[in-house]
Amino acid sequence: MNTEETHCMKNFCFCEVTMSKHIIDDAKRCLQCKNPHCRQGCPIQSPIRDAIALLLDNKLEDAGRLLFANNPLSLVCSHICHQENQCEGHCVLGQKGMPVFISAIEKYISDFYLNIYRPVPSTGESGKVAIIGSGPAGITIAFFLAQKNYSVTIFEGHDQIGGVLRYGIPEFRLPKTVIDRLAETLRKSGVKIRPNTTIGANLSVDDLFRDGFHAIFMGTGVWRPNRLNIRGESLGHVHYAIDYLKNPEVYRLGKTLIVIGAGNVAVDVARTAVRHGCRDVQLFCHLDESGVTARQSEIEYAKIDGITLTLRQTPVEITDEGVVFADSDLYTDEEGRVHARPIPGTEHLEPADSVIVAISQGPRSVIVSSTTGIDVKASGLVAVDNCGHTTREGIFAGGDVVTGAKTVVEAVLVSRRVADSIDAYVREKTRGGIAEKNSTSLS
Ligand SMILES: Cc1cc2nc3c(=O)[nH]c(=O)nc-3n(C[C@H](O)[C@H](O)[C@H](O)COP(=O)(O)OP(=O)(O)OC[C@H]3O[C@@H](n4cnc5c(N)ncnc54)[C@H](O)[C@@H]3O)c2cc1C
Ligand code: SF4
């Protein structure tokens, strides 16, 4: 072993030891509450108290199994959930001091477990299910259905799985290796992955039914950037956030960047741009603090990165030189929502080399427009019942394409329920022979 390797090994061991010591010390602070508020604060009721007890009892694998069974994206969630409003925000110790550092404990346990977990491959005997989209919603459904012995195929428009986890959330918040490990675990579970395949562009859902899939899940997310609808939006130095985050390396933004928006996506864009060489990055929000929907911690990180945030500025035009803003006049509509309108005469140019628009996303209509019978709402989001059934028999949907832009944990929550619905549907229909009817009636 050369000196460099020895040095690396020493560093690794040192980090491991300090990290686990910190984790153990923190886990020991947990009061093992009878009625754990941390669990109630988690949208998917993560059994963190029991996982902590197992950890302290030297049963790390059992702790990991418990968390994974409840949420196969537990490692992802430990990195990027908004814990301050959820588990950690509800921990009783937080009422008078520091809550248990649940995210770090969950990360430690889940990271270990994903390394050692050896899934039993699905036998495929329960039926055949197609999953369109491999974001958190699709991945969760795939894990649950593979465990129930379904033959699962994921169709993904991109070249790799993960959805926003891979093509949206920056590496410094969620390492891509986490998603690579999930992809490998899915394959070991017997899930087939068909990359670079956009359903609706060439193959259609009717083709899938024809080829014997008993049910289809649409977890296609929201990938159509919302527009500002102002002059200058089509200029060459203007980009949309979700496009930029897909592969920031290919953009040449210059030194000065204006990001329009103040949500988590806008902050991810701004922080990514700083890491790709932009020197002067400014966020602009048309509302006051009420319009800043990014996590407080992310705003603080952005400030540390040297990014500024300016409130109450409404963009009225984009020019080659930058963005023309006007001061905002705020007003409240009948439903209590705050809006902004530009105050005439206050227009001024904020110079910038590039502009990125980050004002949320809506769904693309590629599947819906190529398929009959799937109803959408006015927003373009897919209409479903409580169990995730769309209006077309055999097709289910969940995640952002149903709820609009939300969070990973919410996509997991819904997907667990929809996996059960798909299971119940396929059981009933294969017994009743309706799956055959579905495939023949469409051919
Ligand atoms: C920049 C950014 C940062 C975020 N940060 C956080 C965060 O910190 N914490 C958090 O909890 N949430 C965060 N979110 C939200 C979270 O990532 C989403 O709520 C979540 O990814 C939704 O999962 P999904 O599976 O519904 O959709 P997606 O993750 O959007 O996945 C949909 C997948 O479907 C594929 N697809 C679409 N159409 C087709 C088709 N026709 N055929 C085949 N494949 C198709 C897409 O390529 C994509 O892979 C963030 C979102 C963004 C954009
Ligand atoms: S609320 Fe806090 S102290 Fe109580 S069980 Fe949960 S993590 Fe432990």
Q: What's this entry about, in short?
A:
It is built from 17 helices and 16 strands. With 443 residues, it is α/β, with parallel strands linked by helices. The structure holds flavin-adenine dinucleotide and iron/sulfur cluster.
Task: Please explain how this structure is put together.
The chain is an alpha/beta fold and 443 residues long. The chain has three domains: 104 residues, Fumarate Reductase Iron-sulfur Protein, Chain B, domain 2 (Orthogonal Bundle); 176 residues, 3-Layer(bba) Sandwich (FAD/NAD(P)-binding domain); 135 residues, 3-Layer(bba) Sandwich (FAD/NAD(P)-binding domain), CATH 3.50.50.60. It is built from 17 helices and 16 strands. β8, α14 and β9 form a beta-alpha-beta unit. α3 packs across α7 and α4 packs across α7. It starts with a helix and ends with a helix. The site of iron/sulfur cluster (SF4) has 14 residues, from α2 and α3.
Produce the secondary structure layout.
Elements: H1 3-29, H2 37-41, H3 48-56, H4 60-70, H5 74-80, H6 87-90, H7 102-116, E1 128-132, H8 136-147, E2 151-155, H9 164-167, H10 176-188, E3 192-194, H11 205-210, E4 215-218, E5 224-225, E6 238-240, H12 241-246, E7 256-260, H13 264-275, E8 280-284, H14 296-304, E9 308-310, E10 313-319, E11 322-332, E12 338-342, E13 348-351, E14 354-357, E15 361-362, E16 395-397, H15 400-403, H16 408-432, H17 434-442
Parallel strand pairs: 1-2, 1-4, 2-3, 4-16, 6-14, 7-8, 7-14, 8-9
Antiparallel strand pairs: 5-15, 10-11, 11-12, 11-13
Helix pairs in contact: 1-7, 3-4, 3-7, 4-7, 5-7, 8-16, 13-14
Bound molecules: flavin-adenine dinucleotide and iron/sulfur cluster (SF4).
Flavin-adenine dinucleotide is lined by residues 80-81, 132-138, 155-158, 163-164, 168-169, 198-200, 219-221, 223, 242, 245, 264-265, 268, 366-367, 399-401, 406-409, 411.
